[in-house]
Every structure is written in C-alpha cells, then in structure tokens.
Specification:
Length: 360
C-alpha cells in the first residue's frame, strides 16, 4: 500500500489521531460560503420525499447507523429504522409508502449490504450510500452518494470511518431539518468544530487510556460496557472494538437490561466500564455501576463535563449532548488499542477478520 504509517507503530493509532482533521475536513466539504450546510440538492429532495428512512449496514457502520437514527428522528422528525444488512435479507420488514434506503459502508463493498441494495432496487425504491470510497460498488449502484472524506482506512478495526459517518449523518439530518423549516437551537457546524478540538484533547491523553487499559484488560477473559440512551450505542461500538483486536469477550449492554439477565455474569473482579454523557440517564447509569460493584465488579466511569462526579475515572470535555458519541468513542478506541497492545495482539490485522467482507 502507498499509505504509510509514518512515525506510528500501527495504522489504528494513526487513524484514531486523524479523527479531528477528518471532522474539520467534513465541515469544510459540507459548508457553503456563508457557513451554512451545503448538500447535494438531490439528496435533500430524496430525504424530503421520503416518509421513512431505512438504514442498512454491518459492523461498525451499523453502530454509526444507530446514532444516525437519533439525529434524523430528533432533528429532522423523520422516522428511521436501522437494520443489520445480513438480517434484512431474510427478515424484510413491512415497508412504508415512500422508503429511502441509506447504506452506510466505509468500503462500499460489503456483500451483505449490496444484496439488500439489489433487492430494494428491484422493488423500485431510492437509495443513498454514505461511504469512504465514492467509486465503490454500493456508491455506483445507489442513486446518490455522500462521501465521508476520511481518507483511506487501513486498520481492520474501523475508527475514523465511524466518526466520519456520524458527522455526515449529523449534516444530513440538519440539512433535512433546515429544508423542512425546523428551527434548531444550535449551530451544527460550529458544534462539530468544538467536537474536533475535544477529540484532539482526548488523543493527547493517550497515557491515561493506556493505564486504564493495563489496569482493566491485561488479565481478564471478559469485560462489560454499559450505557443508556446515546451511550448505549457507543458502548456497543466500544465492545466491538475490544473484541476485534484484543479477543477479550466483551459486550455493550443497556444499563437497564443488566438486572434482566446479564448481572448474573458479574463475578469478583469482572471489568465493567460505564459511559455517562447524557443528563437524563446520568443518575440511573450510576445506579447500575453501584449494583455491579456490590457484586464484586471492578468498575470505571467515563463521564462528561457537567455530569461528572469526583470518583469518575475520566471526564470528557463538554460537547453538544447530541454529538457526544463523536467524543466518547475516542477513549473507547484507545482503550481497545492499548488492551490489544498489552496482550501482544496484532492490532492492525486481527485474526479471522477482513477489512471488507465481499462474501455473504
Ligand atoms: C468488516 C470490517 C468491519 C466493518 C464491516 C462493515 O466486518 O471488519 O470493521 O465495520 O466490515 O464494513 P463497511 O465497509 O461496509 O463499513
């Protein structure tokens, strides 16, 4: 490959560090001369014409879709369903009158997603691909494309593509909201700029995450991440990152579901990482931490400025509440990276995995 690691030991670490410039690049690419959002008018029209958005994706891109649903529903007031591509083929839901299919795919080559695209084209439905590779199969075959502008992602574990997908989904949601005359009480591009700076401050604190990873993940066989609301989506991605590169059996759970089963797995010393960036669930997720602690779990809370408590392990600087996944995933990526490093795993090329899966 032509892409070099430079001074970095691994592509993954380089790509984690590239996230702030990628966010700034996205702001620039989707901004007009008056600092407003600039989007392909055909994409805007497709969004306005649709009564329901169906997001189709796999892996990390699916996790970005879960976050994107929140933006499109909360900001633009359009209902959204998010589907795992491979499942959609067998369990196709009843479709609305005017569905718009949005394929999220870093590579644009995922076979599971492509087979859904082929199927929905046969049914005559419009499609948009959000991808890092504009000439890719999913991009060529869909009606419209939005480009992630993240630059080539080499590490198998996706990092900068995830945050780029979320940023582009914010832009798509905001553009639709504005086109519908919905008044948003914040300046999205300015808030994304703040996110980029916060991401930078997080990637500047690598030693902190290296220490937490050494402490929590060096010995363990399993680990749990918990969150509620927006944080639930991020902890699913956090656990996927850890599984992929460190081979620790990890799951991301909704805090409220613990008591319905998972809490049975907590033993003396089981690592539980809690994420708390949402005001409405700050109290309840901390309650969950106490519950697992009482059963012997080794816990750690990563929170955000404004919601923090003295005992929190790490506090993320403030960002707009809807945009927290862009910031909160960075510590999670770094925790997974250092866990893999401490366990002598092949960070960039984990066993059994491929960067893009072109078979169903
Ligand atoms: C593979 C990769 C994952 C990725 C998924 C979807 O499984 O290992 O990192 O999230 O495919 O890839 P896509 O290119 O469609 O986003």
């Amino acid at each position: 490959t032509d892409i070099e690691k430079g001074t970095y030991p691994h592509f993954m670490l380089k790509e984690i560090d590239e996230q702030p410039p990628v966010i700034r690049k996205i702001i620039q690419e989707y901004q007009d001369d008056h600092d407003n959002i600039k989007l392909d008018p055909e994409v805007r029209k497709a969004m306005l014409d649709s009564d329901r958005v169906y997001i189709i994706a796999a892996g990390t891109s699916y996790h970005a879709g879960l976050v994107g649903k929140q933006f499109i529903e909360k900001l633009a007031n359009v209902p959204v369903e998010v589907h795992i591509a491979s499942e959609f083929s067998y369990n196709m839901p009843l479709l609305s009158e005017k569905p718009l299919f949005v394929f999220i795919s870093q590579s644009g080559e995922t076979a599971d997603s492509r087979s859904v695209l082929v199927r929905i084209k046969e049914l005559g439905h419009p499609s948009l691909t959000i991808t890092n590779v504009p000439g890719s199969t999913l991009s060529r075959e869909a009606n419209y494309t939005l480009h992630l502008h993240a630059g080539p992602e080499i590490a198998v574990a996706s990092t900068k593509a995830y945050t780029a997908q979320i940023a582009v989904l914010v832009i798509l949601a905001v553009d639709t909201a504005q086109a519908k005359g919905i008044n948003l009480e914040f300046d999205p591009l300015q808030e994304l700029g703040i996110v980029a700076s916060v991401m930078e401050s997080l990637t500047d604190q690598k030693e902190t995450f290296e220490k937490i990873a050494a402490d929590f993940f060096t010995e363990t066989r399993n680990a749990f991440y918990i969150g509620r609301g927006m944080d639930y989506f991020v902890v699913q991605e956090a656990s996927l990152k850890l599984k992929e590169i460190s081979y620790i059996q990890a799951e991301g759970f909704a805090g409220g579901e613990l008591k319905h089963g998972t809490i049975a797995l907590i033993e003396e010393g089981t690592p539980v990482i809690a994420l708390s960036t949402q005001k409405n669930v700050n109290y309840s997720i901390r309650g969950n931490v106490q519950e697992v602690e009482a059963r012997g779990a080794k816990t750690c809370i990563i929170s955000i400025e404004g919601l923090e408590q003295d005992t929190d392990t790490f506090v993320i600087p403030h960002v707009h509440e809807l945009l927290t996944p862009l910031a909160s995933v960075v510590p999670m990526q770094l925790l997974a990276y250092y866990a893999a490093l401490h366990r002598d795993c092949d960070v960039d090329k984990p066993r059994n995995l491929a960067k893009s899966v072109t078979v169903e």
